[in-house]
Amino acid sequence: MENLSPDKISTAFRKALQAGLIREVDSAVIFYDISFLQKRITDLKSCFPQGTLHGLAIKACPLTGIMKLTKDLGCGVEAASMGEVKLALHNGFKPEMIIYDSPVKTHEELEFALNEGVHLNLDNFSELERVKGLLAKSGERPVKSNIGIRINPQVGLGTILESSVAGEYSKFGIPLKFKQEELINAFIENDFLTGMHLHVGSQGCSLEMLVEGTGKLYDLMLEINRRTMKQKGFSQVSIFDIGGGLPVSYFRDKQPVGMQTYVTALKQRAPGLFFDASSKDHGGIRLMTEFGRWAYTNSGWTVSRVEYVKQDPGINTAMIHVGADLFLRECLNQKDWSHEYTVLDRNGQIKTGFAANPWNLAGPLCFSGDIMAKGLSLPEVHEGDYVVIHDTGGYTFSMWSRFNSRFIPRILGYYFDGEKFIQLKEREEIEDIIRFWT
Ligand SMILES: Cc1ncc(COP(=O)(O)O)c(C=O)c1O
Q: What stretches in the chain show pLDDT beneath 50?
């Protein structure tokens, strides 16, 4: 099952209504189907060798309750900033389960990460020099962190430019084609450099691109390990981080690639990465992954009450309580970012049929671009109905915008189609907004 169906969502929402969890003030609520999410993580783990570190991308879903849940399922995290590193430590992740990837780490941040023993992926040669300096400063102390370097495999751009990072030029990593010899020398000169890292892009990247990204680094790894074996007597690269980027489907009639298909293709292209690193006869390589969207997106959905309905010639508008605050990308770039929608009546029952005119879904913000979807075929929508926005579990709430000082909605998790609910985050109050702006 890749997407939650309207039936399942309607069932859970009716249970939330009956349990009194949707108060008058809850004009919008974000939900996570935790049972679905748990299954996603178990499926992910079953596709990879046992010793793989799955560093789920915090930026996709930084909710403390969800992070703790994935920790208990044996996952690590990928942190895009020092804020995310500290959030992960606060949530009980061991330093070695944290993959720190920011491309702009300061001296202090690097020192902190090295002292804690966080896994570091360096972005460029200047950062490598800084780390060298910091390690020299710490003298004889053993290096606690595993240290890798991010390499841009230059396999091309996906369909979404803003989230493609493996073109000829990228602001991330070291370009493989242009710097291959320098990269090999960097490994030969620095014994502490034991990891390789890549990330091709997020959503919009084809299976071929993702696999070839890993393939190109795999070839480089074999070459480096051949040379270090010859010169130093050991294979230096022992950690291989394939990043994230497996796309999901936002539409039930579009089949996504699927994790198993991806892993099968990776195994063919880079077989040496797929030994069980925890077994005695492994190939000496520990795999890491950094999935965000694939892990979280399909487990979450958002519901908003319809506050008003407007009828104009040829178009209707449902005025709802989420817009560019929660769905910035959707409002600014509908070509690349869109969802399925379901209309529920005030009791949570699915409405069917189609209204004569198409619908716009307009948010509450003060600019005309605050329309997350245009020209939708929907049933008749009335004041007091609810609009469900499907597949909002990744890169929505985490990209919340403070523009117009809106209150972040309540966030609820549930198990077994709504048999049990937990609160992941309470709806914000005025004190939260004052604190933000003070
Ligand atoms: C370095 C890195 N790793 C992992 C991810 C997660 O990507 P996705 O959520 O598409 O799996 C991203 C997303 O931008 C990233 O930049």
A: 281
